[in-house]
């Protein structure tokens, strides 16, 4: 019998399975939880204790405009990305495996390319003397160069291009799981292609659209490089404002408050998606 047992001392035991998770929990605590708590603490203590930073962000029209721009750009980018990604994902889902692998490799390769390099490439393409305007003018479609940069159009084009893989990948998995016989049965019953898409394919693909759409929307909310290079001062987004507050104005309190608001909105959207998906699965199971 051990000394602890003789003295009546019980040694606390780690629950089964938790021992293997302990290093990961410590890592998450040190590099995720602690920084978030430090961010929250600084937002309510700098320059003085209180909620004045949040009051300034939520009560000032200038900051409200930045919030509006951020959500507008994220919403537009998400909608356009879904519209572009869906036919591409459907094509990848029904193509022969060999050709699908090649196209998947091209999509993945674009994700590995440096983000700054891709953004500068779009700057060259979209400027007034760029390839796109020259091609349109050479074809006689336009007489004057189109304003494709330093505005919402340029930001949308650049961010949609970058976000496409994050929308295509979950959509392909969802579309591949749909039984092709379902669409054939609909056609045999006299359903038109549009009716089959609207009543069968689209509802069955909603989980992939929701997963990819949330990912694109959340990533768009915090994007910095592409909006900063392709957008203008009238289209400033929240990430740009945070960087300006901290790097240029050294206003850590206001920047921390803005970053914490962005984090709370992101977590709320994620919780909403989990709730909607859970409710949909419950209804489907019933």
TrEMBL record:
The lineage of its organism: Bacteria, Pseudomonadati, Pseudomonadota, Alphaproteobacteria, Hyphomicrobiales. Keywords: Cell membrane, Membrane, Transmembrane, Transmembrane helix, Transport. This is ABC transporter permease. Gene3D superfamilies: MetI-like (1.10.3720.10). The chain crosses the membrane at residues 20-41, 62-90, 102-125, 146-169, 209-230, 250-272. Its main location: membrane. It is found in: Cell membrane. Pfam families: BPD_transp_1. Belongs to the binding-protein-dependent transport system permease family. CysTW subfamily. The keyword tRNA-binding does not apply. It comes from Mesorhizobium humile. Residues 67-273 form the ABC transmembrane type-1 domain. The keyword DNA-binding does not apply. It is a multi-pass membrane protein. It comes from the Bacteria. CDD domains: TM_PBP2.
